[in-house]
Specification:
Structural class: mainly alpha
Shape: globular
Number of helices: 16
Order of helices and strands: HHHHHHHHHHHHEEHHHH
Distance between the termini: 67 Å
Helix content: over 70%
Strand content: under 5%
Strand order of the largest sheet: 1-2
Length: 341
């Protein structure tokens, strides 16, 4: 089994990351298992000597984890959302989520190439991570846009860094903005990057804010599948060996794992799976995604990440500012538009 060495290493890192995410300082910092797995993989890849991912026996297993297992993990991620989540925050929450995702990703695809000279794939990865659900969105977007492991690592690093800043900023901003807890929960959930960071920031304010914020955040997560459909038609061609674009069949444009993501979310909405089995599958999903993150990290050398320069971080910083300011404006304007005249 040529894949076994790489798979075993990724599995060990994922298990360690899941345990590490239970550590109180990690929870307080909003560092979930996926983020820890990525950084652990990066640390191993950049130890002195030959990188483990460059060895033939490990490479095929890591490729499997970063490809097939990644897609399986995104499918199971549908168990974290349900169509009832939309009803819990109403039309207001749904419109806010759509507006924020569209605004941030659109800005990434405009600012990155035009102002910073970044390639569209890097912009798509950073934009998806900022707009939707952090590291999980970066991983789901990577196979659709055919991004490099280095680009995915850079995108995850920016999401973690600026997401941590937002997680620290929201509890400080709550008493200053004078927003009701429900409205502030929508604002928090519609603008903070990672689910773990939303939970940490919400709990630092109140359980009521945390509950609304998490539901609003999961609405953004539910937008992942339609987002991937849209994105697959923005990146319809694969580069051939001659460097020319080779059109793909129409069905090849469809990210089928996104279709299954919606199917699984529908199953979860109908409560067809017993709660204890769903809980177990969520742990399995975290483990699978952790393996994928570890594999991506282990295939990335920091020297190549640094070669990306400051521009990706400048883009992520601009999107972070847009989330805070533009997101606040959207959260203020949308409820006013829905008031009956």
């Amino acid at each position: 089994m040529p894949r076994l060495p790489g798979v075993l290493v990724a599995a060990f890192i994922a298990a360690a990351a899941m345990l590490g995410s239970l550590w109180a300082p990690a929870r307080q910092a909003g560092l979930g298992a996926l983020t820890l797995a990525m950084f652990a993989g990066l640390a191993i890849a950049n130890l002195p000597g030959q990188p483990i991912a460059s060895t033939g026996r490990a490479r095929s297993g890591l490729d499997f984890c970063g490809g097939t297992l990644l897609r399986a993990g995104i499918v199971l991620y549908g168990l974290r959302v349900s169509f009832q989540d939309i009803a819990a925050v109403g039309l207001t929450g749904a419109l806010i989520a759509v507006a924020v995702v569209g605004m941030v990703f659109g800005a990434a695809m405009y600012i990155g190439p035009r102002w910073l000279g970044l390639d569209r794939r890097t912009c798509a990865l950073i934009g998806a991570g900022s707009a939707i659900c952090g590291a999980a969105a970066v991983m789901a977007t990577q196979p659709v846009v055919r991004g490099e492991s280095r680009d995915a690592s850079v995108a995850v690093a920016t999401v973690v860094g600026f997401g941590t800043l937002s997680m620290l900023a929201f509890p400080l901003a709550f008493p200053l903005l004078g927003m009701p807890e429900h409205a502030f929960g929508l604002y928090l959930g519609s603008t903070v990057h990672e689910v773990a960071q939303v939970v940490a920031a919400g709990e630092a304010i109140s359980p009521a804010v945390a509950q609304i914020a998490v539901i609003e955040k999961m609405l953004r997560v539910m937008l992942l599948a339609p987002f991937l459909f849209f994105l697959s038609y923005g990146f319809p061609a694969a580069a051939s060996a001659t460097g020319e674009a080779t059109p793909r069949p129409a069905l090849a444009n469809v990210p089928w794992f996104a279709v299954l993501f919606i199917v699984v979310a529908g199953i979860n909405s109908l409560r067809l799976v017993p709660p204890h089995i769903t809980a177990a599958l969520l742990h399995v999903d975290t483990f699978i995604l952790g393996m994928a993150m570890a594999a991506i990290g282990m295939k990335t050398r920091l020297v190549t990440v640094l070669q990306a320069g400051p521009r990706p971080h400048v883009l992520a910083g601009a999107l972070f500012t847009l989330l805070l300011l533009g997101g606040y404006a959207i959260n203020r304007i949308v409820p006013l538009l829905l008031i009956p005249s």
